[in-house]
Amino acid sequence: MSQQRRCNRLILVLNLSLLVIRCSGFTQCQHNTKTLSLRRPLSIHKVDDLRRKRSTTALFMSTGVQMRPHANLAVRIDEPLVPRRAKSSFLLKTMKSIVGVILSDAVKVAVLGVCLLVCVSLVFRSSLLRDRVVNTWKMLQGAALRLADRLLPKTEGVPMEFTEEDGGWGRCTLQSKRSLGKTSFVQYDFDLPKSELTLPLQMGQQVSLSCLDSSDSIAKGDFYVYLGDRSRRTGTFSILAPQRNSDDEDGDMGFDEANFIRVLREDKFVNDELALRPGPSKLEYRGQFLPVTKMIFIAYGVGIVPILQQLKAVLPEGSSSVVQVDVLWVAETRDDFDIIEDQLEAEFLKYPSKLRVQMKVDNLRFNTLADNSKIESAIPDFSPGTMAVLSGPSGVSLRSRSYLVQRGYPDDCICIL
Length: 417
Prior knowledge:
The chain has about 425 residues and is α/β, with parallel strands linked by helices. Among the domains are: about 160-280, Elongation Factor Tu (Ef-tu), domain 3 (Beta Barrel), CATH 2.40.30; about 295-415, Nucleotide-binding domain of ferredoxin-NADP reductase (FNR) module (Rossmann fold).
């Protein structure tokens, strides 16, 4: 009996609690309900909407569940309501900083400068490579030329005889006269009586030529033989002369030689005969420093002609005591170097360690060697065993000798051709 009472009491307490909960829910719904003041009659559709809302409110009141207001935002279940901030990694921040620096003007200028330096370096390296290839090719050419000089038979020919019966004179024939390229010189070619004959001239020796002019007066001159690029070395020879007026020719060659060239140019024709014989030899060393180990050749204009002949004599190994040769060739124009530039280059390729050639442009008929600093620096100082050889117009050679004496060269170690 006592247990039944306890159960009844418990059921009563539960009912009372349920009633309190329902009352509290009803009260809260009343507080949340708004009163609408209608200023104008509602339409049929709005009345239906209000009825639905009231019925819904009554339903919630009966069930004790609180009605919540509808949301005005469009919400998707697969996306968050508030967008999450993208997490930027350290690498991304670093890349953005680097791109910003690269796009700056200072970096653009620096990159452009580096590119230019790289291009210059590549060009410089390519030029160095090209120079090495060219130098290697020239060394091979020089070796081939030296080998050809040793192996190929030399065409010596038969020396031409000059007898006392004819006064020591022989005869030759004018073959041609032609301008030598773009130079200011004319080349005169002569044929000997026979194709196998050669002129018996020593190193530094000239050939004397003589003929009659239009008035039957004798014209005579001494000239150095010009080797040139003739393929036939026997039975012929050539000389060079400047193509100037008479006054300039007198200064370049002397009166007799200038007069002979004038007659040769104006009065003589192809196949005309002339007289010839071996001329004077002017190469002489009067110094006291023996043996001669160094030779310095200073040539002006056509004065380079006898220098080439002497180079061919002293440069080959074992041919002389000379171990070093310097050649300074001065010409009025760059075109004048075409006289024997190729022959000089060939000799240099054969003996690059023994021969040094320098070519300068200047007018030494009016200037001196001391007036040109580049020419002055090309002439080495004197040392015992050195011989200086000057070749060219007499006036230029005399002034050059005075200059060398001032530089410390003994006068007896200077030879004028």
